[in-house]
Amino acid sequence: MSATVAIVDYGSGNLRSAAKAFERVVAEQALGLDVVVTSQADVVAKADRIVLPGVGAFGDCKAGLESLPGMVEALTQQVLIKARPFFGICVGMQLLATTGREHGDHAGLGWIGGEVVPLGVEALGLKVPHMGWNQLEADRPDHPLLQGLAPDAHAYFVHSYRFVCADPAQRLAHVEYGGAVAAMIGKDTMVGTQFHPEKSQATGLAVIANFLKWKP
C-alpha cells in the first residue's frame, strides 16, 4: 500500500496548483506516493505526510480550519504526537505561529513559537503586498529541505505579513525585503514556506522533492 500525502482542503488556497506540483514531483522521481486533497479529518489521521496550504487572511484561514470537524485534533495528533512530516505553505505556514496580528489578534496553532505581523515596509518605499521573485538566503543551510538548491535560488512570494520566530534558530531561510523576512521556518518534523513552492519553478519543485524524501 502506497504512503499518502494529504493536502488539506479547508477552503483556502489554490489547491489544484499545489496538488499538481506535488503529483509532478512524485511522478518524475518515481516516489510511489499517493497525493490526496481532502477535507476529511479521518483521511488526514491516516496520512504519512501532511501539507497545509493557505491564501487569505490569518483569522479567516484559522476559522476555516476549525470549521472542519475533528481536523485540528487530527493534525495535532499526527504532527505533534506521531511526528508525521508537515509542510505549511504561505498562510498555512503562518498558522503555525502563536498569534496572528492581521485585522486584530488571532490565536494560531502555536506549534512554532512566534507571531505574524505586518511587513511594515511602506516607509522604505517598498510595496505591500510583497509580490514577486526574491533570492533565498539560507540561515540553516544544513537543513534537509534546503539541500540541492541553486546558489542563487529564487522563490515566488505574495504576502503582506511575515512570521517572526520566537527562536531565531527556527528560521531556516530568509529574503531581504526592507530587512530580513522569514522565507522558511522549521521545528522537529514541521517545515513551512512563506513562498509558494508550486509557483517557484525549479526551486519550488526541489523543495517539494526534499520534503517528500525527508525522514526526520
Please name the defining characteristics of this protein.
Rossmann fold; alpha/beta; 8-stranded mixed sheet; 216 residues
Gist of the model:
By secondary structure, this protein is α/β, with parallel strands linked by helices. Helices cover about 25% and strands about 30% of the residues.
Folded structure, characterized:
By secondary structure, the chain is an alpha/beta fold. The protein has a single domain, classed as 3-Layer(aba) Sandwich (Rossmann fold). The protein has 6 helices and 14 strands. The protein has an 8-stranded mixed beta sheet with strand order 2-1-3-4-14-13-12-9. A 4-stranded mixed beta sheet has the order 6-5-7-11, covered by helices on one side. Helix 1 links the parallel strand 1 (3-8) and strand 2 (33-38). Helix 1 packs across helix 6 (201-213). The two termini are 21 Å apart. The mean pLDDT is 96.
The number of E-state strands comes to 14
With strands numbered from the N-terminus, the spatial order across the biggest sheet is 2-1-3-4-14-13-12-9
Could you name the ranges where pLDDT drops below 50 across 5 or more consecutive residues?
none
Q: What's the Cα radius of gyration? A: 16 Å
The CATH superfamily turns out to be Class I glutamine amidotransferase (GATase) domain
Helix content: 25-40%
Could you state the order of secondary-structure elements as H and E?
EHEHEHHEHEEEEEEEEEEH
Largest sheet, in brief, is: 8 strands, mixed
CATH architectural category: 3-Layer(aba) Sandwich
CATH topology: Rossmann fold
Work out the helix count.
6
CATH structural class: Alpha Beta
Structural class assignment: alpha/beta
Return the domain count: 1
Task: Tell me the distance between the termini.
Answer: 21 Å
Task: Tell me, rounded to a whole number, the average pLDDT.
Answer: 96
Query: What would the principal axes of the Cα set say about the shape?
Result: globular
Percentage beta strand: 25-35%
